[in-house]
Design brief:
14-stranded antiparallel beta barrel; mainly beta; Porin; 22 strands; 7 helices; 515 residues
């Protein structure tokens, strides 16, 4: 009867129905990697005042009008991610490799044959790139001297009436889990409480009172909980760009991009815990836990870029560019499974709580921060150039929407208080020796967090070469980046985190042809 009354009371409210969202879910889309052509990557993406590359138009859209001829380019890259993890003194590592066609596009150049016009040239371009590669594997292990993963379920259970965590006669675990998560139910928190109760991780202080709201954990005290975390993700952020640019009197180039973003992200995570602590003399004692979560996020977004490049002298160029926020519309789907081994006076039991239900959550929006980039380049005649890009991006403006949702309001306040405006530096250069071009680059990106131990600064180095023949060119690049960050085993209930050292090695090969 209470469940029926609750449904009528809440109606179609979505408050509290979403999964446990964190700032890292927004930063997955706000922090972009440098991908693109091999030439672009070889110079660490530092081409804002140079242009003449299909990936460089993502930095400054005015760069497409620098092309002299119609040009087509395609790139294949091999991405290798290595994660070294440290958790309570225990070290582990995991690798992931992916081969992908990460860029393809073309630019069309139109010279103005009217000599009396100051607008000398127009260009149109269309380009697709993967802006983020989500393929990654992360394994951490260690013995936690204080906190159990079971705290997550114990914390979740407090305050929920026992009636909502117990199956009624004829009701399955799947039906109860589905009811709690559907419109009019109690939501994600109640689902976690139910999993813990059905798996005997938590028990009620008074299991004869359906109104009981107080629970205790069946995990023995004493610490020294051996824990493992395995996370495997795959997917991408992709961007399709339509570009227009024009050159005025061979002095000023102006450009604009309209971008459609695509995202497809899957994360499978599994946490495991075991203990050898003394068993309770009465009731159940939890000895092992395995908690599995499968998250699928997909959606689309939109953004635009504006840019200008000025030829100050024959050798010196200046550029300025603005990248708008990206407005994403996203959808989440989540499934969960819990396996618990416990013992009592009668023996040892394995409880598998598998609702076999996919939670499909209401659509929501994420707005990423805008970015300003200033560029300067010095050109050594026909021999080469050096370029410097400096960008500013205020991550504290990242927001989930709708803003009036209680969950998102709290998250937005969290990000506003803990994220900051960042500065990034990209330096790159190219030197030509007849048909061969030698390239190198460096990049530095500040952490978006005020306390950067959470998600550290990124440092990267790159190099490469190109070979031109007839009307075509082949480019090869190697880029390395590394960043340190903290990784939680579980979203709440324990604050202990593994320290991750992430190294990303990328080899890219591009083929470019003019026509």
């Amino acid at each position: 009867m209470k469940k029926i009354f609750l449904s009528l009371l809440l109606g179609t409210s979505f408050i509290g129905l979403s999964q446990e969202t964190t700032p890292s879910d927004a930063l997955r889309y706000a922090v972009e990697d440098l991908n693109g052509t091999a030439r672009f990557r070889a110079m660490s993406g530092s081409m804002g005042a140079i242009g003449g590359d299909l990936s460089a138009i993502n930095i400054n859209p005015a760069g497409s009008v620098v092309f002299k001829y119609n040009t087509f380019s395609a790139t294949v890259s091999g991405f290798n991610q290595k994660n070294n993890s440290t958790y309570f003194g225990s070290r582990s590592s995991e690798n992931d490799f992916k081969l992908d066609i990460n860029q393809i596009g073309a630019v069309f150049v139109f010279d103005n044959t009217n000599d009396s016009s100051d607008w000398k040239k127009l260009s149109f371009a269309i380009n697709y790139e993967n802006t983020n590669n989500f393929n990654n594997q992360l394994f951490s292990k260690g013995t936690n001297p204080n906190n159990s993963i079971g705290n997550y379920f114990s914390d979740a259970a407090q305050g929920y009436q026992l009636e909502y965590l117990q199956t009624q006669p004829g009701e399955s675990v799947s039906s109860l889990y589905n009811y709690l998560g559907e419109t009019g139910g109690l939501g994600f928190g109640a689902q976690q409480a139910m999993l813990g109760y059905q798996g005997f991780i938590v028990s009620a202080f008074d299991d004869t009172d359906s109104n009981n709201v107080d629970y205790f954990t069946n995990i023995p005290v004493g610490g020294n909980y051996y824990q493992e975390s395995y996370i495997k993700s795959k997917g991408y952020n992709g961007k399709l760009t339509g570009n227009f640019a024009a050159n005025y009197n061979d002095i000023l180039s102006l450009g604009m991009n309209l971008n459609i973003h695509f995202t497809d992200y899957t994360k499978s995570s599994s946490v495991y815990e075991s203990n050898n602590n003394p068993e309770y003399t009465t009731g159940s004692t939890v000895k092992r836990i395995q908690f599995d979560n499968d998250l699928y996020t997909y959606g689309r977004g939109f953004s635009l870029n504006l840019g200008a490049i000025a030829k100050v002298t024959e050798e010196f160029r200046l550029g300025i560019a603005y990248e708008s926020p990206t407005w994403y519309a996203l959808n989440d789907e989540l499934s969960q499974r819990l396996v618990v081994v416990n013992s009592d006076a009668n023996g040892t039991y394995t409880d598998v709580v598998d609702p076999n239900v996919v939670n499909v959550y209401p659509s929501y929006n994420v707005k990423t921060p805008s970015k300003w980039t200033g560029s300067a380049a010095y050109i050594f005649g026909s021999n080469g150039f050096i370029n410097v890009d400096v960008s500013s991006k205020d991550y504290s403006t990242t927001t989930f929407r709708p803003k009036n949702d209680a969950l998102y309001a709290s998250l937005n306040d969290n990000m506003s208080a803990n994220l900051k405006n960042t500065i990034s530096y990209n330096v790159g250069g190219e030197y030509k020796i007849k048909q061969i071009s030698l390239r190198a680059g460096y990049r530095f990106e500040e952490s978006p967090y005020k306390v950067d131990a959470t998600f550290g600064d990124l440092i990267g180095y790159s190099g490469g070469l190109g070979y031109s023949f007839n009307n075509a060119r082949i480019d090869l690049s190697y880029a390395n980046t590394h960043r340190n960050y903290n990784q939680s085993f579980i979203s709440s209930g324990m604050n202990d985190q593994a320290r991750i050292n992430n190294k990303n090695d990328t080899v890219s090969l591009s083929y470019t042809v003019t026509f």
